[in-house]
Amino acid sequence: MRAWMVLIVSFTLCLLPTGCDYLPVGFTPIGEIVQSPGSFEGRTIKVKGKVTEIIKIPLIEYKSYTLRDKSGEILVLTKGTLPTLNKFAAIKAQVRTMAIINEQNIGLRLMEIEKLPTMGLGG
């Protein structure tokens, strides 16, 4: 009975705008983005991982942090609050690069759109 309730609630959430963003599925491995930046350029994705570095410079609008999962790591830019160092984070973001030359990226980064709940993601 409990499994049916979870399924019904999950399905109902997916019917709401952006509801599926809050389910613990559909995350892109960071390594896939790093290995093939051209196929992700401009796309909105979900990623999760451990925050391994944070940078905040006075008088600059954007702050940054690095997310790492088992497959790789990537720079994330945000106008929002920085996550806690060495803690797990999940975000919805847009993939951006300055240039891609023969599948080699220059300036690969994620532009954070929103932070997602981490409950149930194993972090």
Please sum up the structure shown.
With 123 residues, the protein is an alpha+beta fold.
The CATH superfamily bears the name Nucleic acid-binding proteins
Helix content: 10-25%
Q: Counting H and I runs of at least 4 residues, what is the number of helices?
A: 3
Q: What general outline do the C-alpha atoms trace?
A: globular
Separation, N- and C-terminal Cα atoms: 28 Å
Strand order of the largest sheet: 1-2-3-7-4
N-to-C SSE series? HHHEEEEEEE
Our Rg estimate from Cα atoms comes to 16 Å
Which class of secondary structure composition applies to the elements?
A: alpha+beta
How would a textbook summarize the main sheet? Answer: 5 strands, mixed, barrel
| The CATH C-level class name | Mainly Beta
For the record, the CATH architecture stands as Beta Barrel
Q: What is the count of β-strands?
A: 7
In total, the number of domains comes to 1
The fraction of residues in strands falls at 35-45%
Q: What is the name of the CATH topology?
A: OB fold (Dihydrolipoamide Acetyltransferase, E2P)
Average per-residue pLDDT, rounded, comes to 84
Poorly predicted ranges: none
Please, could you describe this protein's structure?
This protein is an alpha+beta fold. The protein has a single domain (25-116), classed as Beta Barrel (OB fold (Dihydrolipoamide Acetyltransferase, E2P)), CATH 2.40.50.140. The longest helix is centred in the N-terminal third of the chain and has 14 residues, at 2-15. The protein has helices at 2-15, 30-35, 37-40; strands spanning 44-55, 63-69, 72-78, 88-96, 99-101, 104-106, 109-116. A hairpin with a 2-residue loop joins strand 2 and strand 3. A 5-stranded mixed β-barrel has the order 1-2-3-7-4. The protein has a two-stranded antiparallel sheet with strand order 5-6. The two termini are 28 Å apart. Helix content is 20%, strand content 40%.
